[in-house]
Write a structure and sequence with these properties.
The chain is of the alpha+beta class. The protein has helices spanning 5-27, 31-43, 46-50, 59-84, 170-176, 201-218, 223-234, 242-250, 261-275, 283-303, 308-322, 332-346, and strands at residues 93-99, 104-105, 109-120, 125-126, 131-137, 150-155, 179-184, 190-194.
Length: 347
């Protein structure tokens, strides 16, 4: 196991995440403080243990490192879940929010994922900075909503809840997705304040994805062809109907429609095949190959809207690309564990 340092750190960190998640939903009031106290206490003796000269006691350093990563995973998970919690006003309140993703048309409503910027009542104006799901009545005005629009609306928001205790725990699912509240915005109770405001990197990526979709439309791709092409190339699956999904599922190829490590791996392999044709062991050539690979991989992730599955795969293959600087033989499992650890630390 000494050949897999990141794998050894990943195991206790994931264990801490699982424990922190479980305890948050059952005893959320106290565990975060306890995890932080234990984490600080466990890190204090690390310098002393690392300097031990007795070989038979060096294992103590490893034990404390494992404990630190376990507590770090638990504390980080509890803290992030705690940040999602928010006490909304019991009555209808005026909010200002920015739409953070492409609106999704449902049967009778338009679903918008948004981030609250302001909460206005008769006494004060606060800045919640929480993610919410907003449902607008499906009409000609709600169809015009776009990613990046800033809206003013009046509604009663509430934390996620379960209508039926015997079904899927939808409230816990949304909490893990960092969604603090849900609300239905009635017709005539909202207005667009500005367009393209507060644009994040992911929102900019989504705009470029929309441009590619428009380009496909200009090339006269329609119906099923357009739906499959959009899913295979840039990961846009909103146009896939049930018949297409069922056909791919029956044939055992449904995973092809979801951009993931398979597609990024094929792109990475193609780049390596082409760039390895340039025989050179100089540092400049290695740097050139890595630069081309990174630009291409992250450019691909960008036009897919920076979807989490693609970003995870690109992070992993980026680490594979950097491993070319190593003089010895790299271990794929260790690189995979390093990518997983980085992604879990981020989210």
């Amino acid at each position: 196991m000494h050949r897999y340092p990141f794998l050894r750190l990943l195991a206790p960190f994931i264990s801490g995440i699982i424990v922190g998640d479980f305890l948050f939903f059952h005893y959320q009031s106290i565990w975060l403080r306890l995890f932080l106290v234990f984490f600080i206490c466990s890190t204090l003796p690390l310098p002393v243990l690392h300097s031990l000269k007795k070989y038979n006691l060096r294992w103590l350093f490893g034990v404390f490192v494992y404990v630190c990563f376990f507590l770090a995973g638990a504390a980080l998970t509890s803290w992030r879940l705690q940040q999602v919690s928010y006490v909304f006003p019991q009555s209808e309140t005026v909010y200002r929010a920015v739409i953070t993703d492409r609106p999704e048309a449902k049967k009778q409503t338009v679903l918008c994922r948004a981030r609250l910027l302001e909460c206005r009542d008769s006494l004060s104006i606060t800045s919640p900075r929480k993610n919410v799901l907003l449902y607008f009545p499906k009409d000609s005005t709600s169809y015009l909503l776009q990613n990046g629009d800033e809206v003013l609306f009046s509604a009663r928001l509430s934390p996620p809840s379960n209508n039926n205790s015997n079904t899927f725990d939808y409230a816990r699912y949304l909490t893990r997705k960092a969604v603090s509240g849900i609300g239905f915005v009635k017709r005539g109770r909202w207005a667009v304040a500005t367009h393209n405001s507060h644009r994040s990197l992911r929102q900019i990526a989504s705009k470029y994805q929309e441009r590619i979709l428009s380009f496909y439309t200009q090339l006269d791709f329609q119906d099923d062809e357009y739906a499959v092409l959009s899913a295979l190339t840039i990961g846009y699956k909103e146009e896939l109907n049930e018949d297409i999904r069922e056909s791919y599922s029956v044939s055992g190829a449904s995973h092809v429609l979801a951009l993931s490590g398979l597609h990024v791996g094929l792109l990475y392999g193609l780049l390596l095949f082409v760039l390895k044709r340039i025989p050179s062991k100089k540092l400049e050539m290695k740097l050139f190959r890595i630069t081309i690979i990174l630009i291409t991989l992250w450019g691909f992730a960008f036009i897919t809207g920076l979807s989490p599955s693609v970003v995870r795969s690109v992070v992993m293959f980026s680490l594979f690309a950097f491993s070319e600087f190593r003089t010895g033989k790299y271990i794929p499992m260790n690189i995979l564990a390093a990518a997983a650890l980085l992604m879990l630390l981020y989210n």
